[in-house]
Design a protein that fits this description.
By secondary structure, the chain is of the alpha+beta class. It contains three helices and seven strands. The chain starts with 5 loop residues before the first strand and ends in a 10-residue tail after the last helix.
Amino acid sequence: MTKTATVSLHGNSYQVEAALVGRKVELVFSPFDLEHIHVRYDGRCYGPALPQVITRHAHPKAKPETPEPETAPSTGIAYLNLVTQAHHAGLADDPGIGFNALYSRLAGDGGGREQVPGHTSIEDFIDAPDHDDAHTEHRRHHGNDPTQEQQ
């Protein structure tokens, strides 16, 4: 115990009761937790020693109470490789997305394609009147011909 009411244990510094300055005290602690230490003197407990500088949290020779779990013996089976092989085999057998299923072959037309019901074909847009032409025709019909000059 120092004159400033501190004790040192395994490189850590702790504050204790000032009444214990100059006396030889007993420190009660767990070797696995050096942050919580109790001070005893002459058979009486003087409360906890308050940590000031903690550089080590466990006793240097303290061994963990629970042993490390043993590693399982090797079976010689590479499960990850088996899963990878099964995955690749499944991909090889899978035809993927069949875009040709969107169209069905017409009988006797030499390989042409038929439109899927409910879908719009590109031909519908090619033969349709231009949007601007339809708009101009609508305005002409209602007396607002944009090609004639306003007077």
